[in-house]
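Lecture notes, unit on protein representations.

Consider one protein chain, 235 amino acids long.
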Amino acid sequence: MPRAVAINVGANTNAPGVRGPIYPDGRFEYVPIPEEEPTSEPVPTYADLDLDTELPEGSADAPVHLDPEFAEYPECEAYTYGDPFGVKARPLLDLREGDYALFYATLTARGTPERDWIASDWGAYLVGQFRLARDPVAGEEYPDLPESERETFRSNAHCKREEFDAAVLLAGDDAESGLYETAVPLSSPEQGATANRLVTDLSSDSGKGPWWRRPMKFGERETAELLELVEDGYE
């Protein structure tokens, strides 16, 4: 049975200075962070994404770090993810083909929530997933991969940087990877900084401190329960 690791991705109050929105019905807009490193080929800007989110003044022409890449998202081609930091790379490298990488983001409520699980200010929510199409690739292994395998990651943001810097690369399959239509909460509805039972009961994290910045591991039984909530909708 598959296992899962959930990691924090997307815009926040530091970069680019706002969170993506969660709408009253639980839908959301995924907003990537800015690209902060030189790239060897052109990358999209926030303006290219035609976002509903109101960005800080002057951000429209800033290049974006489209990572994770979801094939159905503007300017994306495939399901890939890369990360240069060991704190995220290490648990992800423990996954295997058929396991899940789950992506969560902090989102700010827009309007008056119609779903009682939406926090009135901000909260952490699962926004998408990859079903891994192959074992994760360690960054030091990537340069030695056959060209046909390197091609899998061609559109990943770290492979477009002048200096490749990913410590891990993931590839999701087409059948079970994608952005969710409706977010799944990890925060309690009372306060975004308070973890709900998906964190405290199902994941490896205690839910104490700044839990929404940490990777979370889910065992086989816990992953099955979590995926059922994603499939059936969280209520």
